[in-house]
Design brief:
Layout lengths: L5 E7 L3 H12 L6 E8 L5 H11 L3 E6 L4 H11 L4 E4 L5 E2 L3 H12 L3 E9 L5 E5 L7 E3 L1 H12 L18 E4 H7 L12 H10 L4 E13 L13 H19 L3 H23 L5 H13 L1 H9 L7 H11 L3 H11 L1
Parallel strand pairs: 1-2, 1-4, 2-3, 6-10
Antiparallel strand pairs: 4-9, 5-10, 6-7, 6-9, 8-10
Helix pairs in contact: 5-9, 7-8, 8-9, 9-10, 9-13, 10-13
Enzyme class: transferase
EC number: 2.4.-.-
GO molecular function: glycosyltransferase activity
Length: about 350
């Protein structure tokens, strides 16, 4: 099999402590024909110098320094400067298994795939590998209408009718992408500063053009918990942004002609993000009166009520059923105490 060039894009911002680990995992790939694009997004720490040092050590590395504009635009800069047959996007505070590119590139070539999806493992702040999430799909290849009818809904969320999950994750970093697909569709990432959960929103666009999707049932990516990813602060516009994400996704589905099943599945990341936001509220440094007021606002919100009333809750856990019952019936005080007990 010919070994075509694969572009690996690493957006870099304020990850000096983790950068070497990430780059080492990429340069050490068993697949050697790589173009490694380090996009320094105006990082204020020692990352710019580290990038230049790495470029001197490995001729496959290309460094781009730019003004800070966020993760989405840093990835787009990578796309604009990539010359590979395939491309992938990895976060620079995470790392990948040594055979990631070799196995995903082989799967792409053997199946003429537009996109190859794989699993991941979580890593705690002490470096210990925790949960390993391996895709469990009914098929390893989806072609034509199967991509939008069968694959994409399960990528967005579990099946609410039977509770079955395929362990797929709609994230930029669990995939290898065809550059032909990206070029011909004119696809780019939206900025996370404009749309929260930007990967889901952006990938809805891309999957409209995907003809063949392939699954490799292995966990190649290591998603790392670190100090920069943990916070007890709550930005007061967070739920507003989650609601904006939901509405923007529904509008996009309508524009792209996606069926109701895909729109129905969007409700589940919306509620998951909303519950996460409520947990952040109850564990924040706000006064208890402020916390209760913010929970009240979310529970009584028109979009929240619309989504909750159309959801199929029969496969939810008992605890979730109680919480959703409380939200549905606008029992905001009960919601507060339920979330507080879990948070």
């Amino acid at each position: 099999m010919d070994e075509g060039l694969v572009s690996v894009v690493l957006p870099i911002y304020n990850v000096e402590k983790y950068l070497d680990r990430c780059i080492e995992s990429v340069v050490g790939q068993t697949y050697r024909n790589l173009e490694i694009i380090l996009v320094d997004d105006g990082s204020p720490d020692g990352c710019p110098e580290k990038c230049e040092d790495w470029a001197k050590r490995d001729k496959r590395i290309k460094v781009i320094h730019k003004e800070n504009a966020g993760l989405g635009y840093a990835r787009n800069t990578g796309i604009e400067n990539a010359s590979g047959e395939y491309i992938c996007f990895f976060d620079s505070d995470d790392y990948i298994a040594a055979d990631t590119i070799e196995k995903t590139y082989r799967a792409a070539k053997e199946n003429y795939a537009d996109i190859v999806i794989f699993g991941f493992s979580t890593v705690d702040k002490y470096g210990k590998v925790g949960n390993t999430i391996v895709p469990e799909t009914e098929s390893l290849k989806y072609v034509g209408e199967e991509v939008q009818k069968l694959f994409l809904p399960d990528l967005i969320s579990w099946n609410p009718d039977n509770g079955r999950t395929t362990n797929l994750r709609m994230s930029a970093w669990t995939a290898l992408y065809s550059m032909k697909l990206i070029r011909e569709s004119g696809w780019k990432f939206v900025s996370e500063r404009d749309i929260i959960s930007e990967d889901v929103y952006s990938l809805l666009d891309l999957y409209h053009s995907v003809k063949t999707a392939v699954v490799v049932p292995e966990a190649f990516y290591f998603y790392c918990e670190n100090e920069t990813s943990l916070t007890h602060s709550y930005k007061k516009d967070r739920y507003k942004r989650i609601k904006q994400f939901y509405r923007a996704c529904i509008d996009k589905c309508d524009r792209l002609g996606y069926d109701n099943e895909i729109k129905r599945r969007i409700a589940y990341p919306f509620t998951a993000n909303s519950i996460a936001a409520m947990k952040m509220i109850v564990t924040s440094d706000l006064s208890i009166e402020e916390k209760k007021k913010m929970i009240h606002t979310i529970v009584y919100d028109e979009t929240m009520q619309h989504v909750i009333h159309q959801m199929n809750l029969k496969t939810e856990s008992f605890a979730r059923k109680i919480l959703f019952f409380a939200i549905k019936n606008r029992m905001d005080k009960l919601c507060f105490w339920l979330i507080k007990s879990k948070a």
